[in-house]
Specification:
The structure is a homodimer. By secondary structure, chain A is mostly helical. Chain A is built from 7 helices and 5 strands, in the order H-H-H-H-E-E-H-H-H-E-E-E. A 3-stranded antiparallel β-sheet of chain A has the order 3-4-5, with no helix packed on it. Chain A has a two-stranded antiparallel sheet with strand order 1-2. Chain A binds a DNA duplex through helix 4.
DNA sequence: ACTAAATAGTATGGTTTCAAAACTATCTGA
DNA sequence: TCAGATAGTTTTGAAACCATACTATTTAGT
């Protein structure tokens, strides 16, 4: 009974917090794109990964990205290892405007929550997302922290604190451990990630 | 720092849970409309109130409603007291399809949260919404429960448990006490509701 | 090694959603 | 009575989106 109110609240809050129309010259979808490419790790900063994350088609994602590249918010680089693939990186201009993100109102509101509440709130949100993503058959993005592919604290190498991803078999920097990854796998109720690794 | 993750989670969860494209013959906006008219009280089931709630313009809301009326989900009635105004009510067809609402996945996920967590989660969500709505200058909808206009347990009438709204000066049924109202006013940090009462 | 299938990305056409503006009708208040 | 506010609609143009079709590259099966 009350769960329905919660669900509607989440949708409503998302709508209101997105801001109406274009803010600071960027549309809601473009803001979503910038947010994604700011948080995604290097394996995930591709049109396809963004499409999967954002719940849209590759065609639509491609258009959104085209606009962001044209406006100087993203820089496009062809992959060295895969001739089909492309990597997108935020430009300085993009990082500068991210402080005017219309989502900042919501960020501030969340920041005003008592720390203890905020932590539990965050955990509950992630749980909801995991459940909904599973049911909708969408991939769940996550960070190395809780990923089964993560191999921390290099066991067989000298030089302390060497991190590695067992899925793509590549070393990871400390920064990347907290970035979103499309190859994320929580282990337990393994989301059936078909296909090969994104790298 | 973590607050930004929370904000992005809420937006993302809202997107994913809305379902892609039309589900069961209804688009995401149409579903939002049905949800609204299912929860709003009789003072608030108008195109303008829906526009205010949904954070869109009256023109857009009008179009959405036109479609829902044409498809037999809403019934339009002209107001008896105000020649300009229109009242929208759900039809039986609408109530029937609401069980197929794509939001049900999220409802089920929320229902799976431990009761104690769910309650605190709900409170935190409402707090976030209040804060964001205030900052965005949007009206905050609410129920009689915490509204300053609510006058419960009729003091000057016989017949126990008579409820009334002091803003529109009309009697309220028990059902209406838990419905959303555009005239809601929490009192404390009174959102500046300009204009006259919706009735 | 060779070929078929899968994948990454893009382009195009048409639909839906939306905001902004212009408009009519009605109500309110001085 | 009349100016201004309000309720609702329509129109126009811009995004957002999906479906489809397409090229290029990679992977997998035999």
């Amino acid at each position: 009974m009350d769960s329905r109110v919660i669900a509607e609240l989440i949708l409503h809050l998302g709508r209101i917090a997105s801001g109406d129309g274009s803010v600071g010259g960027l549309t809601p979808v473009q803001w979503a794109g910038l947010r994604y490419f700011a948080r995604a790790n290097r394996f995930s900063r591709t049109p396809s990964a963004f499409a999967a994350f954002h719940g849209t088609t590759r065609g639509t994602a491609s258009q959104t990205i085209k606009g962001l590249v044209a406006d100087g918010y993203l820089k496009q680089t062809r992959s060295a290892t895969d001739g089909r693939s492309v990597r997108l990186d935020l430009t300085g201009k993009a990082r500068a405007v991210l402080s005017d993100d219309p989502i900042e109102a919501l960020v501030g509101a969340a920041d005003a929550l008592p720390p203890g509440v905020r932590d539990k709130f965050s955990v509950a949100l992630q749980r909801l997302l995991g459940s909904v993503a599973l049911q909708a058959g969408k991939p769940l993005f996550g960070t190395c922290e809780t990923c089964v592919h993560f191999q921390g604290d290099g066991c067989c190498r000298e030089g302390a604190n060497r991190y590695e991803c067992g899925f793509v078999n590549e070393a990871l920097t400390a920064d990347e451990l907290v970035q979103l990854c499309i190859n994320f796998n929580a282990g337990k109720t393994a989301p059936p990630r078909a296909g090969t690794a994104w790298r």
